[in-house]
Amino acid sequence: MRAGKLQSRIQIERLQLAVADNGTSRSVWLPVLMTRAEVKEASADEFVLNQIAGDKNRVAFLIRWPSQPITTSDRITYAGKAWNIVGLSEIGRRRGLEIRAEAVG
User: Residue 76 in contact with residue 82, Cβ under 8 Å?
Assistant: First the structure.
């Protein structure tokens, strides 16, 4: 994985329960990891399949192997937009991680 291609900054967030001083609780997205990534838009074939299936915008984020475990219950914040993680693939032997995501809303 070439460092020159990791030009975008992304933040991995995890949903956690926060308790206020008065005892009420609510779910909030808290940052877990901020890292650089290569962002790959959907290919032409994926774009056509997504339009037929009615799916949302899809993107693949390529990052170096993370220091924190990442799961599909986490989400990514990139360019002011939230992205739900729908798939994870290891690149090499823990060289990197491909994170497939779709735009929220």
Answer: yes
Taken as a whole, the chain contains a residue count of: 105
| H-state helical runs in the chain | 44-53
Tens digit of pLDDT for each residue in 18-37?
888 898 999 999 999 999 99
Cα 36 to chain centroid distance, Å, stands at: 12
Q: How many CA atoms lie within 13 A of 22 on its CB side?
A: 2
Greater confidence, 92 or 46?
A: 92
Instruction: Say how far apart CA 16 and CA 13 lie, in whole Å.
Output: 9
Residue 26: how many other CB atoms lie within 10 Å? 8
Domains of the chain: 3-103 (2.40.10.270)
Rounded to whole angstroms, the Cα distance separating 40 from 89 reads 14
pLDDT in tens, 47-85: 555 554 555 588 999 999 999 899 999 999 999 999 999
